Amino acid sequence: MQKLATTLLIALGIASLPAVADVASGQKLADKYAAVAKTIDPNFKPSADAGRAFFTRKILVHGKEISCSSCHTDNPANPGKHIKDGKPIKPLAPSANPKRFSDIDKVETNFEKHCLEVIGKDCTAQEKTDYITYLLSIK
Ligand code: HEC
Fold first, then answer.
1. Is the pLDDT of residue 50 over 80?
2. In the list 12, 93, 114, 118, which could disulfide-bond 76, CB 3.0-4.6 Å?
């Protein structure tokens, strides 16, 4: 399924997003992920609430409870801090950091890495849509 989703992303032209960094890139990216999610569930509707729940959901990893918010904090408009090396992380919300979600390669690499770390597998197109929708809802 993951292979299919990736192929679809490429087919939908996600790889050719313009390099202009602004809040609109996040919306475009969310729309592309939503298009993929709809091929799996035609009734899928992006939900900021589901994205928020996903972002703060705690999962037990190697005896420690972690979530996306462990490093990115409960408020994605705030700067985060890496739980392992303590390094600062720039805010995830495009309203606070317009560079976010403008580089599809970076976004996909980070999703893959962090989803694997936190959930043990890559996130679905639906989860990614909801997640970005939530981040875009933060002003
Ligand atoms: C262990 C710490 C940590 C956790 C947990 C974590 N992240 Fe990250 N995240 C980072 C770091 C470090 C970066 C890259 C530094 C940067 O871009 O400022 C990053 C960047 C990202 C980006 C890149 C966005 C962009 O356009 O630049 C996405 C997407 C992302 N994380 C998603 C997630 C998701 C989804 C989860 C939960 C499943 C998650 N992260 C959990 C540390 C973490």
1. yes
2. 93
